[in-house]
Amino acid sequence: MRNVLIALAVLVILAVVVIAPKINNVPKLDETVIAAASAVDNQYKRRSDLIPNLVATVKGYADHEKEVLTQVTEARAKVGQITLTPEVLNNPQAFKAYQAAQDGLSSALSRLMAVSERYPDLKANQNFLSLQAQLEGTENRIAVARRDYIEAVKNYNLELRTIPGRWIASIFYPDAQVKQNFTATATETVAPKVSF
To answer: What's the CA gap between 58 and 128, in Å, rounded?
Structure first.
């Protein structure tokens, strides 16, 4: 009987040593995902804030390209209607709508940059060059923020799907669910065509 109690005590101590440090992993990793999502949203907002200045600058030179300018403005408005909240992160349909709005804005901005290539005076305009550089920098920041978000989601999802994290989550955090990740759209996976 004494040996059984000693063995049981050793198992309890081992369980505490192994599992106790991991008990708070789920909320820590969840907060990391939320912070990474906020960083992505922050970069999207920065891009959205730059767009009115870019559109105004281009409008002065490309007044007859109103369709493209309208598309950019409408895409920016759609982006402004969806906020990245924890509820959106946990709802696959809402997350896809958020991503679709951002992808629509990226597509409209690509068309706007193509329009700008047709106007030599616009390409030489200092305001436009500055805005274009800021927009390109923002697109790079978005890519980095999305990469960081993807990594945070991977770590969180791994914690929920592997042992002992899976057991801990089922006992202490039964509402914890696998998070959604960004995916490349069909237009993002097509290589641009360059012709000379």
So the answer is: 7
pLDDT digits (tens, 9 = 90+) for 142-192: 889 989 999 999 999 999 999 888 988 999 999 999 998 877 666 555 554
DSSP state of 190: S
- What Å distances lie between residue 83 and 30, 37, 94, 163, CA to CA? 18, 11, 10, 34
The answer to whether 91 and 35 have CB atoms below 8 angstroms apart is no
Q: Count CA within 13 A, CB hemisphere, residue 85.
A: 5
Q: Quote the CA–CA distance of 168 and 157 in Å, as a whole number.
A: 13
Given the structure tokens 């920016």, which residue do they identify? Answer: 76
Q: Which CATH architecture has domain 24-172?
A: Up-down Bundle (1.20)
| CA-to-CA separations, 42 to 23, 36, 85, 127, 187, in angstroms, rounded | 30, 10, 12, 23, 23
Q: Are 161 and 52 within 8 A, CB to CB?
A: no
**Considering only CA atoms, which of 39, 189, 193 is closest in space to residue 103?**
189
Predicted model pTM: 0.66
